[in-house]
Design goal:
Strand order of the largest sheet of chain A: 2-3-1-4
Strand order of the largest sheet of chain B: 1-2
CATH topology of the domain at 4-99 in chain A: Alpha-Beta Plaits
Distance between the termini of chain A: 59 Å
Radius of gyration of chain B: 15 Å
CATH topology of the domain at 25-103 in chain B: 30s Ribosomal Protein S18
Structural class of chain A: alpha+beta
Oligomer: heterodimer
CATH class of the domain at 25-103 in chain B: Few Secondary Structures
Largest sheet of chain A: 4 strands, antiparallel
CATH superfamily of the domain at 25-103 in chain B: Ribosomal protein S18
CATH architecture of the domain at 4-99 in chain A: 2-Layer Sandwich
Order of helices and strands of chain A: EHEEHEHHH
């Protein structure tokens, strides 16, 4: 199976200490490595105000990571761990590789079109009359 | 800020002019729909363009709540296409992005009282 990419976000309670958060990240990385996944990047967004209350709290410590894996078992394991971990209030895993692929496709498509367009435009002013003459000739 | 402004552009009751059929406004720019009647009321409705098409957006990131925020109402509802002028493709992506953002508490499901 091809490699899949996931976004993994989790929110810790705001009173969690920095070392504890690092510990959670470390365990997540470890668990992912165990199951054959790979953490591409970890980004701590820090304390943010949440849009609604979770566990009666208004703030949370967001951690965002990008994960690559060839099979979904990793996600199951990671979500289980996050669920049982006390400081984690909320988590979300999203598979993003298909969307990234789609984005790439559109980008390539656009570049191709952009590359083609100037070529089409360029000869037109250079030889407007012959082109017009030809067209009328074929039309008649 | 702008979320209060967007719905006012086209009140829900505005019938025929509300949903222009052409969802790809890239070329046209702002073609003003001509006044419908010569009589007392003559609206000049500016054609709404899809903001994402203008910016050539290929991917709507659910992590950027500030991009998604103008497309929800104060109460947390997702604004319909006829109000924002978003094209169908981008509206589809937008909906998914908003729902994801709601799940991770970046956007509200419903405004709190």
């Amino acid at each position: 199976m091809e490699e899949r990419q996931y976004d993994l976000i989790f929110i810790c309670r705001p009173d969690t200490l920095e070392p504890d958060i690092d510990k959670i990240i470390a365990t997540v990385e470890h668990a992912a490595a165990d199951k054959g996944g790979k953490i591409e990047s970890v980004n701590k967004w820090g304390r943010k105000r949440m849009a609604y209350r979770v566990q009666k709290l208004r703030e949370g410590y967001y951690v965002y990571m990008v994960l690559k894996s060839t099979h979904g078992e990793v996600i199951k394991e990671l979500e289980r761990r996050l669920k049982v971990s006390d400081p984690v209030m909320k988590y979300l895993t999203v598979r993003v590789d298909e969307e990234l692929k789609r984005q790439e496709k559109f980008k390539r498509h656009r570049e191709r079109r952009a590359a083609r367009r100037p070529r089409k435009v360029a000869p037109a002013p250079a030889s407007p009359a012959p082109a017009g003459g030809e067209q009328t000739a074929t039309a008649v | 800020m702008s979320e209060g402004h967007v719905p006012q552009q086209a009140p829900p009751g505005s019938g025929p002019g509300g949903g222009p059929s052409g969802p790809r406004p890239q070329g046209g720019g702002s073609r003003a729909g001509g006044p419908a009647k010569r009589g007392k009321r003559s609206f000049v409705r500016k054609k709404k363009v899809c903001r994402f098409c203008v910016d050539r957006v290929d991917f709507i990131d659910y992590k950027k709540a500030e991009i998604l925020a103008p497309f929800i109402q104060e109460r947390g509802k997702i604004l319909p296409r006829r109000m924002t002028g978003t094209c169908s493709r981008h509206q589809r992506w937008l909906t998914v992005a908003i729902k994801r953002a709601q799940n991770i508490a970046l956007l509200p499901f419903a405004a709190e009282l």
